[in-house]
Write a structure and sequence with these properties.
- By secondary structure, the protein is mainly beta.
- The chain has one domain: Lipocalin.
- It has 2 helices and 16 strands.
- The N terminus is likely disordered.
Length: 268
């Protein structure tokens, strides 16, 4: 009897320990801006709800221009391998004695994973639109499309992103809502996971052409970051980078966290 009770207690303890370990995977799936620009090809799980807790971004361009940004987001796994995401970018821009702050539009996006990685890389397609809203938002909507590929090797993962944004040069102003938009953008990233520490280290190189001028020179940016699983449902991230070329050369840094929960309802 004592032996059976001990065995039952040990099994119960093992199940309690195993559940958190199985849930500690959010640090593995990277999102755009958390902590780098390039993302992987995987959405949040179906019927999962991810709350990105006010990720903060600070940029300093050449000439002493500072740009603060806070963009809380909600991502929902609405269908198998498909997520819907809504973001509210708030910006604070400082140019010498001039300062401006406010909502810089509303971002709506959907991402669909096309296949599970086998002999072929995992592939995904995404569509995004920046909707006019707030004092620093754009004057019109800017839709974009993106292709994503992820390839996993025994020692690292590689990601390739390509994005194109629609809209004419005359439509793109200098407000915070369109400052980060690109006519096109392409980037490659590599990451390395340390599963026993629930830690991911990543780095990227990104080329982009600003939307404000189709004849502008291509800008090159580099960045690196880390994501760490604080608990079975909470992951934190931080990153930094440098704009190597272009008119706005300078450094930037990001920090944020995300909480993943299940939906409060069930679907058939």
């Amino acid at each position: 009897m004592a032996a059976s009770r001990a065995a039952a207690s040990l099994a119960a303890l093992a199940s309690l320990v195993a559940r958190p370990a199985a849930a500690q995977t959010d640090y593995y799936n990277t999102d755009a801006g958390r902590p780098i620009t390039v993302e992987d090809a995987y959405p949040v799980e179906r019927r999962a709800l991810e709350l990105q807790l006010a990720p903060l971004r600070l940029e300093r361009a050449r000439g002493g221009t500072y740009h603060w940004g806070v963009e809380p987001e909600v991502a929902v796994g609405i269908l198998p391998r498909t997520q819907l995401e809504v973001g509210l970018p708030f910006a604070f821009v400082e140019r010498g004695a001039q300062r401006a702050s406010g909502l810089a539009g509303v971002e709506l996006s959907v991402l669909h994973n096309l296949n599970v990685e086998t002999a072929l890389p995992a592939l995904a397609v995404a569509a995004d639109v920046l909707v006019p809203a707030g004092g620093l938002g754009p004057e019109r909507a800017y839709p974009s499309v993106k292709g994503i590929a992820t390839r996993t090797l025994p020692w690292a993962r590689f990601h390739l992103n390509g994005q194109y944004t629609f809209g004419t040069e005359s439509d793109a102003g200098t407000d915070a809502g369109t400052a980060e938009l690109s006519r096109w953008q392409a980037g490659v990233a590599v990451d390395r996971t340390l599963p026993l520490r629930s830690l991911l280290l990543t780095g990227e190189v990104v080329a982009r052409r600003p939307l404000r001028a189709d004849d502008a020179a291509v800008e090159w940016n580099s960045g690196a970051g880390a994501r760490y699983q604080l608990s079975p449902r909470v992951a934190a991230d931080a990153g930094a980078g440098y704009r190597l070329t272009g008119d706005d050369r300078g450094w930037y840094a990001t920090v944020g966290a995300a909480v993943v929960v299940g939906m409060p309802w069930r679907t058939r």
